[in-house]
Amino acid sequence: MIQVTKPFIPDRKTLDKYLDGICERAWLTNNGPLVQELTQRLEDYLGVQNLLLVANGTLALQVAYKALGVEDEAVTTPFTFAATPGSMKWQGITPHFADIDPNTLNLDPSQAEKAITERTQALVPVHVYGNACDHDSFQDIASRYNLPLIYDASHAFGVQYKGESLLSCGDAATLSFHATKLFHTVEGGGIVFKNRDDLERARSMINFGQSPETPNDIASVGINAKMSELHAAMGLATLDSIDQIITQRAALIQEYHHCLKGHVEFPQRRGSENGAYMPILLASEEQASAVDSSLQQAGIRPRHYFSPALHETTTYGNDDACPVASDIADRILCLPLYPELTTHQVKWVCEHVCKNL
Ligand SMILES: *Cc1c(COP(=O)(O)O)cnc(C)c1O
């Protein structure tokens, strides 16, 4: 059986060293030394500032909206994971979907601009598969309409774009460190803020609204979204291997491209390849389901990631028309990708794809 992904398990000796330290200190959570160390090491590794680690990627989005004062409506893409609009609705924010670019599969800036109304309070594009959004256009729209720009950058760990970290783009960029993501802490997430003030406000928010500046008061409404020391330990042990993880995954992607080029389409890549996902586009919905069943029969588990498009679901469906997203959702498949996958297995997966075209 070949699953679409397999969580990375770090070297046990490395992990145990961190766990021993936690047990000796008996400091298990509340901005402990490992959370602080992971924050510093991730800022250095990613080349970003103002990183706040949180309990998961969904809370990262919720806290980012709250910290930037988003309450009414936000414009986003229907071609994403349910957590993007889900985190909005949970905050009482109404998601408005605009259509995607058929080449990059990211939110189309001109469609996003058309979807802006008087009630819009943020733009929330997603760097789907770690593929960089057209940041210059989004920044231009955000400035003209005076809207915060919040990227769901859950897939964009380590991506470089135009000479800097893609995570530095926007007023906030959120990360997911879920077990199935490229870099993980079992459950976890992060927010990269442009402004230090927003970071400090969010830091208080994730700790019940408590703040060291006002020890005798609760200055704002908060939630509990802190990362624990155990999760940070997993992150630190995984970070030791991240270059190797990315190199291995990127090599497998190259192998897939080599085998499938001319047979299937690939989304157009913007920014560096971080090895997060291996998406392919089939010619039609029929072809996509034929390939899927054939792979399933061979014990290979691809994923229709993301299908259905969210504007067509019961919970998030509305009048927003996004024909490109609907079409892409019918034809997309993500193929298995994780470091232990062999080139032999990749070739075997490709054979099963190609025999159904
Ligand atoms: C994984 C993911 C999330 C949610 O992250 P969690 O850490 O699982 O809460 C949000 N948005 C996108 C695009 C994701 O892929």
From TrEMBL:
Show the InterPro entries listed in the entry: DegT/StrS_aminotransferase, PyrdxlP-dep_Trfase, PyrdxlP-dep_Trfase_major
SUPFAM superfamilies recorded: PLP-dependent transferases
Pfam entry (one): DegT_DnrJ_EryC1
Any one Gene Ontology BP term: polysaccharide biosynthetic process
Which domain of life does the UniProt lineage start with? Bacteria
User: In its keyword annotation, does this UniProt entry include Ribonucleoprotein?
Assistant: no
Family to which this protein belongs: Belongs to the DegT/DnrJ/EryC1 family.
What is the name of this protein? dTDP-4-amino-4,6-dideoxygalactose transaminase
GO molecular-function annotation terms?
Answer: pyridoxal phosphate binding; transaminase activity
Q: Give the modified residues of type N6-(pyridoxal phosphate)lysine.
A: 181
- Keyword Lipid biosynthesis included in the entry's annotation: no
Q: Which residues does the entry assign to the active site, renumbered to this chain?
A: 181 (proton acceptor)
Key words of the record: Pyridoxal phosphate
